[in-house]
Structures are given as structure tokens and as C-alpha cells.
Amino acid sequence: MALSGMRGLSVFISDIRNCQNKEQERLRVDKELGNIRTRFKNEKGLTPYEKKKYVWKMLYIYMLGYDVDFGHMEAVSLISAPKYPEKQVGYIVTSSLLNENHDFLRLAINTVRNDIVGRNETFQCLALTLVGNIGGRDFAESLAPDVQKLLISSSCRPLVRKKAALCLLRLFRKNPDVVNVDGWSDRMAQLLDERDLGVLTSSMSLFVALVSNNHESYWSCLPKCVKTLERLARNQDIPQEYTYYGIPSPWLQVKTMRALQYFPTIEDPNTRRSLFEVLQRVLMGTDVVKNVNKNNASHAVLFEALALVMHLDAEKEMMSQCVALLGKFIAVREPNIRYLGLENMTRMLMVTDVQDIIKRHQAQIITSLKDPDISIRRRALDLLYGMCDVSNAKDIVEELLQYLATADFAMREELSLKAAILAEKFAPDLSWYVDVILQLIDKAGDFVSDDIWFRVVQFVTNNEDLQPYAALKAREYLDKPAIHETMVKVSAYLLGEYSHLLARRPGCSPKEIFSIIHEKLPTVSTSTIPILLSTYAKILMHSQPPEPELQNQIWAIFSKYESCIDAEIQQRAVEYFALSRKGAALMDILAEMPKFPERQSSLIKKAEDTEADTAEQSAIKFRAQQQSSNALVVTDQSPANGTPPVSQLSLVKIPSMSSEVRSLSAGLFASCKDHNTSEQGVTQANGTLSVVDPQPSSSSPGLLGDLLAIEGPPGVAVQSEHNLVSGSEGASDAEDALALAPVGEQANTVQPIGDIAERFNALCLKDSGVLYEDPYVQIGIKAEWRVHHGRLVLFLGNKNTAPLVSVQALILPPTHLRLELSLVPDTIPPRAQVQCPLEVVNLRPSRDVAVLDFSYRFGTNVVNVKLRLPAVLNKFLQPIPVSAEEFFPQWRSLSGPPLKLQEVVRGVRPMSLMEMASLFNSFRLMVCPGLDPNANNLVASTTFYSESTRAMLCLVRVETDPADRSQLRMTVASGDPTLTFELKEFIKEQLVSIPTALQPPAPVPTPQAQPTTSPAAVSSDPGAMLAGLL
Predict the structure, then answer these.
(1) Which residues share a beta bridge with 840?
(2) Which residues are annotated as a binding site?
(3) What's the CA gap between 569 and 581, in Å, rounded?
(4) For every residue of 777-830, which 3-state class applies, written as one string?
(5) For the whole model, what pTM was predicted?
(6) Of the candidate ranges 157-161, 314-318, 900-904, 969-973, the one whose mean pLDDT is the lowest
(7) What is the structure's pLDDT at 181?
(8) Is 917 in a helix, a strand, or coil?
(9) How far is CA 429 from the centre of its chain?
């Protein structure tokens, strides 16, 4: 852009560059913004030159990072200028300052359309660039036909048609309906015959987007793509400007191959043969050279060709050639090429009949485990895990165990899990499996999950021949001076059950076994002590009649822990002490554990669930597997006769990664220690819930009830039991609620039912209700709160007769909350409901909220929604009554800031004192009547719970003026400065703006609070407001 001749702009830029610090820069920017605002108020006196100069200055200020909240109309008005310099400024500044939802853009649509349909190619390019950068539904609906005409017009220059293709691509991503599939298949075929490579490359980008959405309508374009690849591979009619380091248009080659991967197969034999000839030429003609740029381009084409070969299930000879080529790449010095070679070789494992060929490169792959680059080490580990079978399992597992001693801490957990899974799947004998797992625990105990040693216990328990060997190995590891606590657990368990099988071996008498285990007791944590107490009881049982000395030692330990503060340790000590006095009857009471029922390994299940497909979605066939979860799926249960009633549902437990060995105890926040809890049936008032699969429960019985009824035809709003939200449809305001956000490049076409902000505000007051709903899915919440802990259950309901796929739920937590969400299944069955527990721990006071990032795909609709979770400040408050004798000493002890803060709040919505008291009670602030002698004042008290503050008393005093209900004086006091400030701001937000859409059933209506900023805090002067923001 030419800025010569604008002396004022050049001087301003020089002044900014000469500023010594940020404060000087801000003052200079504020001065300039004030000057521009003053000149724009007298717009009639501005010349086109001056308006252009000031708009350039606004753009420069915006580029520096300052907010520019005025002058937008002046920038838009320049678009309609007849001269190029003014029009250029208008287009550039408008596309930079405004987004697709800005109201001023509607004023420019007609002007932009006139420039597009006009004959001035320069103006056409400016208009297309604006539309392509901003996009938006309004632009798509109004301008898409004109953009399509430009693209297929033979009279337009290639420069304009290139921009038209990319502009139409942006509009299609925003609104796929702008392209008529029936009419565009033939037009797309004509565009793929284009001789100009610039237009062809842009058209191919549009074609990739079209076939990714619906490939069925574009079969006629497939031969055209193959001909394009033939033309590029043979370097026919390729201009020099499109040749990159001797490679004909590598970008077009990559896009064309990617487009072909969206077609399931190629039926025509001639087309298929021509394509494989091109691919063969690419495979044979690619090699590693010294020029980095040429390497990057050639390998981009090569790896896309490999993906296409795998997609088309080529002949074994070509597959072998691909593997040989990749084997050469994983041995080069360039790390990027090694990484891509390992990644693509991992993809090749999914192709049949090539695994034996990949095994030839096993030594080189193992060498990659020692690469300095951790990303290469991860890919090598994935490849070794995928290529392992019975023939090479021993070698690979031994290599992994050796590597474990020197591996990065970031990889050890994944490495341990995969080594354990391989040892279990391909063990030649069970003793070797026990050796491997014990070595694993010994070398990387901190990174070995409980599932691994639980699985060893299951194998040993179910195989009698293995029990003496496992007990002997456990005894040998206990001889080491320092072992990991996990090794103490597994060794104690095995010796407690099977040490009597070693009684005749030297050093294995009951007294010696007890002594060596008891040496480890002072070094273990409280979670391990219950296992050791069980081991002592077992040793006592196996030594009947017991040695008096041994018996007295064990009884002394039981007596010691009978007064332990830990409930489980105390209970075990008391019960074992009582049982040990039964004498010979102890043999029956503490008999050996029975065999575990045969079931799928939780480790293998975990590996299948978390196995990531690193290939492009279009490059490899989808794996038909459903990600499991420790969620609960509610499905329809049909009775033997007749139509099932609406309320009859059944709970189907999906096995989780640890569901075989873990379950929650009855209490909501109890530790997960009892691994044999059986799941109970749950009965609700609105229907019977029966357990289909007796797996261990993943949540307390009080939370397993059906919160949301998933009945009725698709698209009908399902209301909550309290009718919190009306069924009015429509998109929610983006400023009041977190609206639907696009996933990747696909725009949402599904709108929510009801107001998302109202639903969130309702859940801030209540503990159950609907958080989000659209025609396909309903998300409900049921919560329980106890001191600084919370447990939420997310109810994900599929309202349709087809499954919801690609389901993902991520929690974006604020820093003051610790959140743990159970895994969400990848697929929600038709008319089913998934329950996902979410654990919440409040670390410190804050008003920030957590966000649920939820996405799914239904048919061609991909929906992504970000929702605020109602884990807000008031959920961690506990109302507490305070008498005058307790209140005034506490109030006086908190003398002033920062423990006691006072503020005059203006802009309060007028309400009676009773309404304000009801509002405070709804947010768990207990109003204490009679404490303040002034009848127009309120005094409230509550207790706030968090890990940092524990139980902290909070006191609030509100002084109102009956003559002016729009303002009040509020004083908040507590023993923590941060808590005082956050609670004051929280209460102020509720008082300033109070939604009235929701009225809880009470004699006095309780207005619902919604956080906003006080109007009194915002100046009416835009300059002062901008200065405040900066």
C-alpha cells in the first residue's frame, strides 16, 4: 500500500516509535484517538484525503493492540468511494476492524455487490478479498450467486477467478447451502479442466471442501483429478512460475490426492491403472537430497501418495515398495523425515500382509527409541507396540524394559502401560508375564497404574500352578533394601494369600514372612496399610495353631490401629483383631480368595479405547470401535409383552479402564478403596431403573436417577421436572451466552432450543436441570455439594433414532478449580442417555467459571458448543446463623481493608427489602434479622469452603435508602483478602442486573441473578471509556 504523501500519518508513526515506554505510547495514542474523534464529529468538513488519513491512523492504532470502538462508519463509507485510494482504505480497514456479526457490514453489502458485478477488475479483487476474509451468513446468502458467476465466467481474468474460487470456499464453509450440489457437479468438472494452474489450484481447494461434505455427487470429477495428476507427473504444460525446485506445483498435487481419498474406491479399471502409474512414478522418483526446500516439497507429495495408496488398498507389491521406502526414511539423519517415516509406517500396520515386511526394520525402529527428539521416540514406541505379535513379543518387551530405566518421565507411564499390555497379550507362559510385570513395577513404580498390578493378582489367583512361583518372586523383591510402594502392595497381597505354599523353603516361615513385610510398614502411606493388615490376618490364619510370639506381635499391631483416624484402617484393625480370636474358625472366615470371573482385560480395553489413529480421517478406513467409558448409558428396555411404558429404562454399565477393580464406596466423597462393591438397583419415582450388567458402580446411588426423559419425536424440547426453562426456540445472544462455535472449518447449522444464559442462571440457583438442548441432544446436570467438594453428573441424551457419533467433551477449568471428568463415549446410542460424573474441588475463592467444550456429529451436521458450568462461587457457601454476641466481635476484629471492603453500588435494580433478602438466601447467604438497628439495612452471614481457606466465616452488611432504591452501600468482611474481594464483586453482580424470567415457587418471588458490570462504572464519554479500557 502506498502511504507516501500522508505527512500526518508518518509523523504519528514516528512519534509512536520514539516513545520510551508503554505509558508514553498510551498517552500518545489517547491523544490521537481524541483528535480523530473530534474530527469525525464534524464529518462534513473532512476532505476525502483527511478521512483516508484518519482511517489509516485508526488501523495502525488497532494493529498496536488498542481497542478502536468508533470510526467504523467512516471506514465503511469509504468502500463506496469512486477512487481507488479511498476504496482500498475502506476495504482494508473494514476487513480488519469488523467481524461477520457487525451491524455496519449490512450497510456495505450493496456496495460490495456492485463492485463484484462491475467491470473494474481491481474493484472486483478488493470486494472478493473482503468477502473472503470476513465471510458471514449474510454475505453468503447475498453474494454467493454473484461470486459463482465470476468463477465460471470465461471473460474474467485468471486473477479474478482465483479470488472468486477462494471466496466461494470461505462462503461454503460458513454456509454449505450456498452451493447447489445438483448444479455444481458439472461446473466443478469444467473447472478441473482449467489450463491455468492458478485457477485450477484454487478450484481444487474448493473441490476438496465439496467432496468432504458429499462425495456422491462428484463421481464425474474423479477422472478429471487423475488427469490432473498425470499432467503434473509428466510435467506437461507446466509454467515455470508453478515449478518449485523442479517439482511441478506440489501444492496442487497434494490437494488432488487428498480429494481422491474422499472417494471410497475407483471402479473404472483404466482410471485406476492410470492413477497407480502416477503413484508409482511418485514413489520411484522421490529421494532425500541436500536441498531442504526441495525435500519438504517432494516429501509432502510422497506422504500424501502413501496415504492414497493405503486408502485404495493397492497390490501387495506396491505396498511392499512403500514399506521399503519408509524403511529407508527412518534411517536418515533428518529428524522430520524420520518422524514422518515412523508415523506412516504405523499407518501401514492397518494394511494387511505388510506386517512381516515391517518386522525387517525392527532393529532400526528400536534404535529410534534412543533418539534425542521425544516426538520421534513416541512414534517409535507406537510403532513397536503396533507391530508386536507372538513371534517378536519377548524381544520387544525386553527392549522396552531396558529403555524404561533411561526413558523420559513424560513417556514412562505410556511405556509402562504398553509393556504390560504386550506382556499380557503375547506371553509365551504366565511365569514370564509375572516376571515382566514385577520388573516393570520395580523399575517404574511411580508410573505403574493400579490396573497393572490388579491384573497380575487376577492371573495368579486364577492359575494355581502360578501361585508358588509368584509368591517366591514377591519374597525375593522384598529382600531389596528399597522398593516402591506398589511393589509392597503386590508382594504383601501375594504373600498373604500364598506364603503357606513356601513354608518349607528357607527364610519363608510365617514369622520370617511377617518380619520382612512388617519392616516396610513405616515407609508406606495410609492407602497401603489396609493391605498390610489384611496380609497379617492371612499369615495368622495360615499358621494355625499360631505361634504365641507371632500372634502377640500381630495383635499388638491390630490394637495400635484400632484408634487410627482413618476409618478403613480402624475398621479393619478392629474386625481382624476380633476375628483372630476365633481360633480354628479363622481358617473358614479368611479362606483364600476365589477365582475371578473371566472377563476382558481392563488394560487391553483401555488400550483399545485410547488408541489414536494418527492418519488423516480421509486417508484410512474408519475403525469400527466405540470408545468405552465409566459413564452409564440409559437405553430403552422393552418388556416381554406389550409396548414399553415411557418411564421404563434400564441402566447399561459401559466398562471403564478400571471398572473391574474400582468402585465408589457408598458415601459421595469417600475414598475409592473397596474393589468388590456390587452395584445396586436404583428406583425412581418416575420409573424403574434396573441394572442390566452387574459392574461396579461409578457413582453414588443418589445420582443414578433418570434426570431427563428422552421420549417424544426428534426436535421436541424435553422440559425439566421443575419447568425451569420455557420451550421457546431460537439462537441465544452471543453476548449473554456462549453460543455455538464452529468445529474446525465446518459451521454449525444446529441452533439451541431455549436461552443458554437462562438455563445457566437457573442452575446457579438450583442443583438439577437442563444446561443445553438442541434438536439432537439434551445436556442435563444433577449436582451435590459438600463443603469444598462437588459432584456433578452430566446427562447426555440422544433424542433421535440414529446414533450421535464423534462425541467429545472437554473441560476448560479455571485455575481455582480442580476438575476430573470421566471419559465420554465416542458414540451415544439412539434414544439413549449417558451419565458422566464430574468431580469438582474448590482450591481458592474466585468468580471464574469452568467451560464445557462439547461436540458431536449427527449425519452431516457437526456441532460444537461451549457451555459455562454452574460450579460458581455460591455453590461453596454454607448458610450459617449468627447471633448478636457472635456477630459484633467478629465484625470489629476485621477492622478494614483488605479484610473488610466497602463500596457504594449504583445502578441497582429497585426491589423491596424482602425481595433482596430472598435473593441473598437463594445464593446461600443467610439473612440475620434484628442484628442491625436500622430496619432498612440487611445483615447476612455464610461460611465459604475451599482448600486454601478451609471454613471461612463471611459477613455482609447492606445499607439501603428507602428514597432511592437504585443505590446502596455494601460492606463485606472475612478473614481472607481474596475471598472478601471476590464475594463483594459476586454480590454486586447479582444486585446490578437481576433476570426476572425465572421465578422459584415461593411466597416471595426470588429474582434470578446474572453477572454483568455496573452501568455506573461505564462513562458515557467514549474517550473516557477507551482510556479506562487501555
Answers:
(1) 790, 819
(2) 7-8, 49, 53-57
(3) 19
(4) EEEEEEEEEECCEEEEEEEEEECCCCCEEEEEEEEECCCCEEEEECCCCCCECC
(5) 0.54
(6) 314-318
(7) 62
(8) helix
(9) 40
